[in-house]
What does this fold into?
Amino acid sequence: MIYLDHAATSWPKPPEVLAAMTDFLVHSGGSPGRSAHRLSLQAARPLYAARESIAAFLHAPHPLRVLFAANATQALNLALYGLLRPGDRVVTTAMEHNAVMRPLRDLERQGVQVVVVPCAPDGSLDPEDMRRAAVPGTRLLVANHASNVTGTLLPIAELGAIAREVDALFLVDSAQTAGLMPLDMDGMAIDLLAFTGHKALLGPPGTGGLVLGTRLDPAQLRPLIRGGTGSRSEQEEQPEDLPDKFESGTPNGAGIAGLMAGVQTVQHRGLETIRAHEIRLTTLLIEGLQAIPGVRLYGPRDPRARTSTVSFTVDTLRVSEVAWRLDEAYGVLCRVGLHCAPAAHRTLGTFPEGTVRFAAGFTTTEEEIASAIRAVREIAR
Ligand SMILES: Cc1ncc(COP(=O)(O)O)c(C=O)c1O
It folds into this structure.
């Protein structure tokens, strides 16, 4: 089996992640922040340690500004529904995932003005187009760091600077890059950073979060849900303290312990090593696939302008057929269709059929890439 679906979720998880989750369930099984007994205290420690390591990893201002969520989708919903009010103007890109687009289209019906800046057919964005759209009075800029369809990297630091010029807030969807690319909230002028735990951060499903930068006043952000936090239990109103205001209900302790082990694994491997491996695999994939007659590639050809997520189509076959044959006959597991990002496919010209998507990870080998390319060559023939 050749697993090329790391952009959906990374697999297999490092043994350290499994060990941390088991350890949490066996030794720290209390409810964190609720009771005062030893198992409850023991359960709270890994949660705070995870906040600390994620804050350091993402250059966040403070561990208490790391708000855990079930995934990037929940984190993005918290940011968008928490901030935007009728009459606000929000500017985003034509390469966004539905985790951004669907909340925005719903908010549009409630009176939020949504402006979508077009991207080039390879998914790239000219920052000048964003500058023209981000007129004074804009409340929020939203952009992904890398597309989940083509891997195209967006110029995040430049977009952050544009947001500052008009005093707008800047929300980044790092679902495809946290754990692959350096992220520096201060250096890139990011005010809200949504991340997911189960992709390149190597954690389990059910983990992710929203990190608040220094410019974001948490009082401006409404929580998505309200409920028990284990703090200020005398109040029937939601507390304002961080992170409790945004983390009602018993947290996913085992998942967060696993996420922290995933982040440590990434740090141990080193982002430079991970990126160099990705660039090597992307180069092989691009060279191999574009040499096959009838195969059409999408996204930038320069591996430094993208992640290792590579989308393609085969002229004479439906994408679903290609993916089915890859799985059935060659054991190559990939993703096919619209990848929850119809806007991106309209940009590429691949709507509504979509593409076949290969997404390598750190554990993917050059031999596996060569086998996958061979399989596509045979199928296309
Ligand atoms: C760009 C992008 N944003 C958001 C998401 C949603 O992430 P999650 O599944 O963690 O909610 C994904 C997942 O594929 C994604 O690729």
Summary: DSSP finds eleven helices and 13 strands in the chain. The chain has two domains: 2-10+270-380, 15-268. The longest helix spans residues 38-57.
